Amino acid sequence: MSTERQQEIIDVSLDIISTKGIQGLTIKNLAKRIGISEPAIYRHYDNKISILLAILDYFKTSGELLFGNLDSLATSPLKKIEAIFQGYFNAFRQNPSLVTVIFSEEIFRNEPMLQQKITDIMDKNSAVIKSLVAEGQAKGEIKSDIESKYLTLIIIGSLRMMVKKWQMGDKAFNHREEVENIFKTLEQLIKVNA
Amino acid sequence: MSTERQQEIIDVSLDIISTKGIQGLTIKNLAKRIGISEPAIYRHYDNKISILLAILDYFKTSGELLFGNLDSLATSPLKKIEAIFQGYFNAFRQNPSLVTVIFSEEIFRNEPMLQQKITDIMDKNSAVIKSLVAEGQAKGEIKSDIESKYLTLIIIGSLRMMVKKWQMGDKAFNHREEVENIFKTLEQLIKVNA
DNA sequence: TGGAAGTTAGTAAATATTTACTAACTTTGC
DNA sequence: GCAAAGTTAGTAAATATTTACTAACTTCCA
């Protein structure tokens, strides 16, 4: 488990990232914002990478929690996919920095541990959605004349694009309504018509 | 127009980016690879940002060229969208560093000029595809019961996701075949059935 | 009273950029 | 036609700043 100060470091880090970007997250900024000296940070985390790893863990755990609760949120595969859309979007609204982190792969390029963790998270997401798509196809809810692999790519790509547009500060982006509309469009395209 | 040395700087920069990432592009690396001193670089470009701007310009121009030739490549709106898919993918295959640059927005975050140029490029892409979608709908080729805005988001999201997967070195990714399959899937979803 | 959490004062390395200068061309005015 | 003046492209050396991180000392509280 993490101590109070460790949690504070993560919280403040997320806040810095959301305003100044990942590159704005320096030990100096972090220490200043918390109100302690730079070396004091190292009493709680070995190095900067450990802090970023903790942030990614936080994100990973949120995702796993969402996946775990899926059965209680919806019954049909399509509704479950929609619940994932909404779930992620809520998480991003509460912590906009998570979006920044997720789109920061290029910055992590020369840090294998970070790179690996991001890849893990993305692979897990893909796998969950792909199995939901396959289940929906088996149940006759989702069109079966399409490989689940490609459908999954289209779904995840749409989700990411939506988040990206929202992040880019598209002022014409009305959260709840847009998420619903985009998902409805996707649903309209892939579901089997009655 | 750009001088020979300026072009060389851009070419070598692209090469460095494709192997070491944008963060590997330092004036030192660049100068070493070309075989001149660091300050000599500044004889040709004011600063590092100017070099990155030139790279983005190169990318922007490629896109505009593609958009300009669209009429000669295909006739129907759907085929034109497919030509854009293929065109971008070819550009990325020839210059993998372009993908890195396109997904490096986070790195450009505190450089308004770079940020602006990236936004411009994305907006231009969106506008072109959106107008093609609308045209396809008007001609009865693309489903009309869906707002072109959302359809565009799904198309661009799919394209980006495809490129991202390819970039992540998905070894199971067979360029030509996959691009075609993904586009076929998309087509199957959005086109009006005869 | 001893260890956890803090401070002060640094270091080493990286990085973009500036300064002062030179050699080799090119242009221009008499 | 040719020398003076200017330009281009380079160098070596130094600078300013940022960054992650460390060593050694101090405070404080259970």
Could you please describe the fold and organization of this structure?
The structure is a homodimer of 194-residue chains. Chain A folds into two domains: 1-45, Orthogonal Bundle (Arc Repressor Mutant, subunit A), CATH 1.10.10; 49-190, Orthogonal Bundle (Tetracycline Repressor, domain 2), CATH 1.10.357.10. In chain A, helix 1 (4-20) packs across helix 2 (27-34) and helix 4 runs parallel beside helix 8 (112-138). The mean pLDDT of chain A is 91. Chain A contains ten helices and no strands. In chain A, 73% of the residues lie in helices and 0% in strands. Chain A binds chain B through residues 20-24, 100, 103-107, 109-110, 119, 145-147, 150-151, 153-154, 156-162, 165, 168, 181-182, 185-186, 188-190, and chain B through 20-24, 100, 103-107, 109-110, 119, 145-147, 150-151, 153-154, 156-162, 165, 168, 181-182, 185-186, 188-190. The first copy, chain A, binds a DNA duplex (30 and 30 nucleotides) through residues 5, 26-28, 36-40, 42-44, 47-48.
In a few lines, what is going on in this structure?
Chain A is mainly α. The first copy, chain A, contains ten helices and no strands. Helices cover 73% and strands 0% of the residues of chain A.
Observed structural traits:
homodimer; 194 residues; mainly alpha; Arc Repressor Mutant, subunit A; Tetracycline Repressor, domain 2; 10 helices; 0% strand; DNA-binding
Number of domains of chain A: 2
Low-pLDDT runs of 5+ residues of chain A are none
CATH top level label of the largest domain in chain A: Mainly Alpha
End-to-end gap of chain A: 50 Å
Strand content of chain A: under 5%
What oligomeric assembly is this protein in?
Answer: homodimer
Mean pLDDT of chain A: 91
Order of helix and strand elements from N to C terminus of chain A: HHHHHHHHHH
Q: Major sheet of chain A: size, sense and barrel closure?
A: none
